[in-house]
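Input record, target 12 of the design panel.
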């Protein structure tokens, strides 16, 4: 139940999930619903922003969310769970599952189906076909790059392709041919990479732990992928929580890995034989980077929060540790390091300095102050030069004497640097990847990769031509071309400049650091291609010009809410669509209302339909624009008649039978007659987040397990077989077939990825 607990005095719980609101208090928000494109933001409604002590030190969101969940549930931390033995259950085999029948009393909500009365078969209803669909799904493209919480995860392979992680994939992208090859050895977010010193096609990758819906933890593991041949070696899952960083030995025989357990444990592997050679506790402080010395045999160096450690392995099971001396530089945090040609250690410091540690004496020396803020990445060139990247967005290229040759500033924090001797790959926190010539460049080129990078991605809309829209909780809106796999337009969820840095912790549950007015969970485009509508996390809709992506107007729908929360700022929006006639915009809010906005009247809300008893999750228009169906978190499926002559007379239609033969313009309601059994028998109603139907032939769903599923139409029995594909490492929030029926687009909530699947 999405209620603000601090505001429960303002509502009385009623039947189902509803609440009966008290009259608005004196001084409550009574401003006109329609705003101009210059937004007024209630600055007092959000709390002050307080920086953490180490705000530059990002941790993987999966770890933070899992630990928060465990704290709330009063359970053990993930790495203290009894873990399943390592196996290959996520790889190989056919990608379908047959639902096994279970006892009636074990079916949970499926035995009740509170929406069953609204499920009426059409007159020409096809018979159920429980067999597998003939079609299958293959990955065509993965949009995005994981740079928001990772470091040093971008390399060139032997063919000059950029190799990087996104969601469950290790991806090799050919810049010139604009082609992509995906490698899937993991079952959760890939967060670190390392390249073999002698074979540039061998890439080691580490992932985060998989936290099941029941709260159990499956240990993370490491894959070594040959991106040339496609072969994958999977190592036993020995770390806890996540694999933070990796490094091959100079001869490539061994692989060192660092875990995210409380001790940041270090393991040395004979990776070809999948054998663990040695293990040692690292440090209570986070280790961010590990590397082998190219000069001194079996010596490794780790850097991270407030430490530099030198590790000496005896070739057997013993690893000894010596601390780098702080002397003149003090105890500071380092975000990465590289060895120079002499075997000394160059470190990227949190204060922006470049520090060198002697491998023999372990004493530091400051070489340069390159950045205003933290230095997050560095690369050593063959000629002895150094490239650095920092929080200030600058990339500095230095010669062998550490004199600056050239610099360029990119939009945000630099996370990763890698060179092939001619060009420089640069990855930043916004999920962008750039290619820069090492000879220098005067102005920033267009990034070769873009994507979403903060919070979650829910908003997805397929356009009539070969394109689609996405919007996220990172203040970004993209229009993507399906064939070229590139963004053709880019805009913002909100263009407001003066907003608090931090939102108060109520309303939508999100990991985004953006203010709610800059976060969207719903997007739609008008049939005349003039406007793009965004449903925001502050309960407002923002209308953009479809050509320029500039703001047209903003409409506050919080006052139409049936569910009252403090300051009316918690009724976020995750369901909306234009009527096929283009005259109206229907908006389903977390205020338990469906608002009908008139396009020609600056999107003023003409009618708020308040028949639901819980927050609205999905809605569809009929093809004739005269009816709406909508679903909520209380598992209601309701129908409404829309009066075009007088919208105020629009009302609920309780007679589902009378509407059984309606043609629906979209099929996004999870609860409907043809989708009544898309849940596995061990799921509850909230585990399927999204549905779409293609030509009354196929049904696609996205669920909380990260799966995209494909059924034959209709799905009327629990034993119906499904094709199941994986790729997302978080709950799948949206699935949409393209207009030509050749592709399916899906969005991953926490992994921030968009995957384009090809029907084969």
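The sequence produced for target 12 reads:
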């Amino acid at each position: 139940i999405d209620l603000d607990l601090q505001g429960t005095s303002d509502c009385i719980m009623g039947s189902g999930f509803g609440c009966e609101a008290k009259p608005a208090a004196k001084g409550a928000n009574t401003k006109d619903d329609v705003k101009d494109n210059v937004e007024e933001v209630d600055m007092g409604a959000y709390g002050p922003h307080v920086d953490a002590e180490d705000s530059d030190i990002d941790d993987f969101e999966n770890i933070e969310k899992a630990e928060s969940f465990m704290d709330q549930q009063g359970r053990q931390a993930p790495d203290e769970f009894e873990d399943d033995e390592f196996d290959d259950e996520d790889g190989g085999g056919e990608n379908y599952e047959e639902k096994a029948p279970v006892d009636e009393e074990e079916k949970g909500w499926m035995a009740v189906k509170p929406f069953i009365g609204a499920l009426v078969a059409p007159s020409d209803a096809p018979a159920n076909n429980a067999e597998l669909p003939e079609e299958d799904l293959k990955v065509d493209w993965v949009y995005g790059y994981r740079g928001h919480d990772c470091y040093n995860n971008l390399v060139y392979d032997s063919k000059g392709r950029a190799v990087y992680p996104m969601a469950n994939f290790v991806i090799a992208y050919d810049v010139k041919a604009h082609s992509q090859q995906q490698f899937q050895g993991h079952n959760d977010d890939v967060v670190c990479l390392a390249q073999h010193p002698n074979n540039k096609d061998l890439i080691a990758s580490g992932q985060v732990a998989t936290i099941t819906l029941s709260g159990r933890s499956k240990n993370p593991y490491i894959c070594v992928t040959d991106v040339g041949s496609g072969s994958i070696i999977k190592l036993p899952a020995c770390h806890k929580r996540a694999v933070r960083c990796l490094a091959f030995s100079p001869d490539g025989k061994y692989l060192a890995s660092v875990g995210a357990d409380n001790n940041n444990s270090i393991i040395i592997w004979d990776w070809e034989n999948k054998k663990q050679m040695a293990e040692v506790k690292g440090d209570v402080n986070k280790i961010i980077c590990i590397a082998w010395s190219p000069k001194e045999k079996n010596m490794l160096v780790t850097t991270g929060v407030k430490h530099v450690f030198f590790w000496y392995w005896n070739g057997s099971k013993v690893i000894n540790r010596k601390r780098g001396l702080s002397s003149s530089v003090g105890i500071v945090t380092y975000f990465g390091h590289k060895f120079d040609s002499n075997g000394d250690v160059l470190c990227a410091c949190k204060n922006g300095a470049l520090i060198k540690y002697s491998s023999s004496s372990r004493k530091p020396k400051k070489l340069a102050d390159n950045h205003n803020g933290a230095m997050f990445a560095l690369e050593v060139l063959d000629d002895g030069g150094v490239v650095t990247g920092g929080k200030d967005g600058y990339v500095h290229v230095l010669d062998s004497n550490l004199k600056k040759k050239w610099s360029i500033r990119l939009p945000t924090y630099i996370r990763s640097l890698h060179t092939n001797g001619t060009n420089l790959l640069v990855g930043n926190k916004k999920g962008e990847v750039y290619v820069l010539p090492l000879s220098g460049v005067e102005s920033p080129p267009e990034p070769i990769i873009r994507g979403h990078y903060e919070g979650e991605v829910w908003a997805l809309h397929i356009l009539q031509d070969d394109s689609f829209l996405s919007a996220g909780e990172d203040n970004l809106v993209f229009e993507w071309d399906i064939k070229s796999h590139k963004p053709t337009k880019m805009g913002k969820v909100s263009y407001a400049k003066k907003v608090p840095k931090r939102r108060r912790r109520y309303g939508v549950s999100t990991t985004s650091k953006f203010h709610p007015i800059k976060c969207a969970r719903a997007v739609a485009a008008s049939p005349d291609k003039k406007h793009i509508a965004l449903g925001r996390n502050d309960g407002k809709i923002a209308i953009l010009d479809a050509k320029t992506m500039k703001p047209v107007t903003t409409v506050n729908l919080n006052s139409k809410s049936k569910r009252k929360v403090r300051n009316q700022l918690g009724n976020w929006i995750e369901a909306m669509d234009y009527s096929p006639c283009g005259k109206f915009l229907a908006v389903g809010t977390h205020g338990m209302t469906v608002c009908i906005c008139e396009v020609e009247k600056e999107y003023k809300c003409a009618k708020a339909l308040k028949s639901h008893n819980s927050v609205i999750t999905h809605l569809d228009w009929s093809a004739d624009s005269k009816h709406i169906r909508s679903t909520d978190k209380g598992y209601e499926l309701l129908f409404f008649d829309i009066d075009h002559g007088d919208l105020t007379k629009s009302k609920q239609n309780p007679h589902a039978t009378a509407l059984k033969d309606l043609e629906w313009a979209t099929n996004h309601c999870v609860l409907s007659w043809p989708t009544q059994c898309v849940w596995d028998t061990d799921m509850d109603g909230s585990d399927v987040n999204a549905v779409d139907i293609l030509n009354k032939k196929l049904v696609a769903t996205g669920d909380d397990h990260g799966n995209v599923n494909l059924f034959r139409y209709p799905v009327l029995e629990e034993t119906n077989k499904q094709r199941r594909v994986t790729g997302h490492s978080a709950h799948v929030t949206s699935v949409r077939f393209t207009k030509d029926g050749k592709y399916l687009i899906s969005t991953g909530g926490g992994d921030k990825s968009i995957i384009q699947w090809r029907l084969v």
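The radius of gyration is 27 Å.
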